[in-house]
Amino acid sequence: MVKICCIGAGYVGGPTMAMIALKCPEIEVVVVDISVARITAWNSDRLPIFEPGLDDVVKACRGRNLFFSSEVEKHVAEAEIVFVSVNTPTKTRGLGAGKAADLTYWESAARMIADVSKSDKIVVEKSTVPVKTAEAIEKILTHNNKGIHFQILSNPEFLAEGTAIEDLMRPDRVLIGGRETAEGQKAVSALAAVYAHWIPQDRIITMNLWSAELSKLAANAFLAQRISSVNAMSALCETTGADVSEVAYAVGKDSRIGPRFLNASVGFGGSCFQKDILNLVYICECNGLAEVAHYWKQVVHINDYQKSRFVNRVVSSMFNTVSGKKIAILGFAFKKDTGDTRETAAIDVCHGLLGDKAQLSIYDPQVTEDQIRRDLAMNKFDWDHPQHLVPSSPTASKQVKVVWDAYEATRNAHGICILTEWDEFKSLDYSKIYENMEKPAFVFDGRNVVNAEELRKIGFIVYSVGKPLDPWIKDLPAAAPSI
């Protein structure tokens, strides 16, 4: 029986290993993590992450050939294939601060693997890492002088939250990068054989290590670029009277472009896009490619601009001040069908409104109050460090209330900001909400989920990103001050 061990029981490690266990009953899969609380959650009825379909997959294999343990060294020593799926945050200080990936957790994992190994191993990079990380890891592993041989593979993940189980079940492609030596190719074949249990051969793509590492950063940069492109157009649509949904539909009909990732919004979030682009920018700068770095940096710049533009719309529409006014925030996760708040646009929007002394009432069907308060009190890049290493901050401001019901959030509010496209926000009883709000009542739809015309008939003043402007808003200043 082959034994696979995965270091890191997070959004990538947990679901990926659960799927391998489900599809390869003859392989023993152990997910290890130094966080005992996280492992306890994986072994309980309430898993630490919300992902449609994940519960069923875990329950089908847990205790059979899928195990979650905090005995990290024991299981790493016993495994033939070790996946490393640890955090690679953006550095907050030192060389490359604010851009470069912090490989502290990766390096300590590699040193631990070298220390405890008694037999040859295949070590698989599953975290998103900068190009050439494999080379550094290889040096650590090969200098352990025990006569043990390690092969490093890059096997980047392409999971989208909310559809991770479907993405694992039927991926567009699986990339495996390895050394172009006989041993390297043998390791590539061994990992390909695991995926071949359920993935067609033509979707398992093998390549060299550096191509695999860079493909992941490139894919995320291209996707984020599409979102920033349509968001840049949304600003122009508002000033010209065009409708960004119509423009995006027309553009997406071109088969060379396609319709996906063309929804204008308050801005992209999630754990990868910004982090990976900043990382790409840093790698370009380190290699003397200043123009290339500048090009990709603009994708993040437009995203920040879109968020500050949204806040500016809210404040300028409401008589240029939200001080002391109750604003309902509907949705805090970075997108629907996930409880994940990493880099969510809601954090920057809330900070912008709190900066103008608004009173916020926040509702999200999947995000806990504890998480929301932690996010609002956290420094910019701290979210990607393990929780127990982040200094606990004073309780986030008294200006924030977290409630468990959209109607409660909107009661006596002056305005509503829709920041996540949860389906339930489409079917709320807006007439009832309108009756219980201060007048004039505003809706700022950052996800284009509501029917603006219907809401205007009820009496709301509505702002939808990239749509023709409400007469009320038309003459107000549009752009945020330059960042």
Question: Can you put this structure into words, describing what you see?
Answer:
The chain is an alpha/beta fold and 483 residues long. The protein contains 18 helices and 14 strands. Helix 1 (13-23) packs across helix 3 and helix 12 (290-317) packs across helix 13. It is elongated. The protein starts with a strand and ends in a 9-residue tail after the last helix. The mean pLDDT is 92.
Write the layout of secondary structure elements.
Layout: E1 3-7, H1 13-23, E2 28-32, H2 36-42, H3 54-61, E3 66-69, H4 72-78, E4 81-84, H5 104-116, E5 121-125, H6 133-142, E6 150-154, H7 164-169, E7 174-178, H8 182-195, E8 204-208, H9 209-240, H10 244-252, H11 273-286, H12 290-317, E9 326-330, H13 345-355, E10 359-363, H14 369-377, E11 400-402, H15 406-410, E12 415-418, H16 430-435, E13 442-445, H17 452-458, E14 461-464, H18 471-474
Parallel strand pairs: 1-2, 1-4, 2-3, 4-5, 5-6, 7-8, 9-10, 9-12, 10-11, 12-13, 13-14
Helix pairs in contact: 1-3, 5-6, 9-11, 9-12, 11-12, 12-13
